[in-house]
Amino acid sequence: MSTLFFFVLRLPSAFQLVASSTEKGLDDKINDGFMPFAIWWEKLILSEVTLFGTGIPLVLIILILGALFFTLYFGFVNFRHFPTAIQVVRGKYDELEHQGPKLKPVVHEVDGDLKGTIKDESHLGEVNHFQALATAVSGTVGLGNIALVAVAISIGGPGATFWMVLAGLLGMSTKFAECTLGVKYRDIDGDGTVFGGPMYYLSRGLKEKGFGHLGKFLAIVFAVLCVGASFGGGNAFQSNQAAAQIIGLFELSGSSTGSMIGLVFAILAGIVIIGGIKRIAKVTEKVVPLMAVLYVGAALFIIFSKIELVDDVFTLILSEAFEPVATISGGFVGVMIQGFRRAAFSNEAGAGSAAIAHSAVNTAYPASEGLVGLLEPFIDTVLVCSMTAIVIILFNMDGTFVYGNVVNGQALLQDGSRLGGVNITSMAFESSIKGSSYVLMIAVCMFAFSTILSWSYYGLQAWKYLFGRGKLTDLTYKILFLIFTVLGAAITLDAVIKFSDAMILALVFPNMIGLLILFPNVKKEFTNYLTLIKKVKSD
Q: Record's superkingdom (predicted)?
């Protein structure tokens, strides 16, 4: 918890800087106070080990090797059972919840006391499979799919796309394991409210294995980091890039413009998050399909309008994955790191965050939601991130910006200016469809808003694990969360990327330790569920 305390201790100095300086605008003052912590935290979490003569962040090695192991151990569940996952979301196997051989719901004591736990075993959660998926997808499909894909392509060139997609495919197996465990070890209290996520499967699952003290320690570490991640990647980064898109599109100026946009986002988010997961789910199940149609529809239109160049794009992606033309440290290993890093931030497989949303599903079968969860990295990375990458590569076929020449997250343009993040993607869309930058702005705001909603729930669950489930605890967290919505819109892209990347990737360390101990439990749940499905099919 020292990291969280360190950050909290820095907040007064940041606000003092805001109050004392008269030469800079509000946004600059906030950024100056925030940047030192962002730099320190990024260096700590992205510590490197040297392989093939290149420094590779240890966290990425853990993520990829873990995902590869789960893919092999679960028999390529990400490919073989992809159709089954679709059928579960569609409700084909909902009858299993009401008839036939049924697994007893796993209900645990709340804070060591069985008195307040669920009394009606037919009440197994708060949302259905689709709502759980929509909430989790809204948490993963965010501006990382738009802004940070542009950053990855700017730094690593087209080849980064290949490694990004590969990481997404492997991450499907990791997400399957996380979401299965999330449902298996969740709490459901007397009124049906669900409390779940890595905090619970780390503490309870590892206790079953004889590692009670380790599990409790990892659960606390995860919860602290999850709160920080909810402030950063799930909140500050989203409001930052939404504000950047609005400011850039309308050519707004003013020292406090970002802060004002952030304040609007905070007010809108506050109205929704007060209602908890049910209200969040009702909003996201409507917003996610709409934003998907807007964004994916525009991307597909651009791709098909330039279909004669798409084969050249795929050739670039495949060839430069191993022989990049971008001036990047480490050659193809450097490009690989960019792809893996962006995929990890975007789909969060291995971070465990989405398991919090999936834990709220109404089911008696943990593996059913594990199957639903594996769809996330596919939707997020394999589909949405890839479309963004293709659009940007198509846009840059004439060398509008220089691959590898990136400073503070901004690429060098032909005219000598620099542009970064969401603005590169906006320029790519506008160059193909006049006026589409306004459509993209709407999509960006919806992406940002839905992600902020989902991550408010993730962070709140972690906060409650640390500090209890009272109303004051709720209110305290939500106020802090909304403050970061405003702060995120005010600071620079470089600062928010450093903080957000490191916060989300830090979750990998405690979470992956738990997954690599508990994976046999996942296999047992999966085998039981497949057996039930086979019986239904044979009847």
A: Bacteria
For 389-428, the three-class secondary structure string (H helix, E strand, C coil) is HHHHHHHHHHCCEEEEEEECCEEEECCCCEEECHHHHHHH
Q: Is 110 helix (H, G, I), strand (E, B) or coil?
A: strand
Decide if 169 contacts 78 (C-beta within 8 A).
yes
Q: Hunting for tokens 């990382």 — which residue is that?
A: 144
Rounded to whole angstroms, the Cα distance separating 368 from 351 reads 20
Task: State the DSSP H helix or E strand holding residue 312, giving kind and residue range, or none if neither.
Answer: helix 307-320
Q: Which domains does the chain have, with CATH numbers?
A: 16-538 (1.20.1740.10)
Predicted TM-score (pTM) of this structure: 0.82
Structure tokens at 508: 């990998």
Q: Chain-wide mean pLDDT for the chain?
A: 81
Please give the helix or strand (H or E) that residue 481 lies within, else none: helix 471-490
- In whole angstroms, what separates CA 221 from the centre of its chain? 18
Residue pair 465/8 in contact by the 8 Å Cβ criterion = no
Neighbours of 290 (CB within 10 A): 13
Burial of 44 from C-beta contacts in 10 A (0-12 / 13-18 / 19+): exposed
pLDDT tens digit sequence for 251-306? 776 667 777 888 888 898 888 887 766 677 777 777 777 777 888 888 999 999 99
- The 3 state secondary structure assigned to 323-340 is CCCCCCCCCHHHHHHHHH
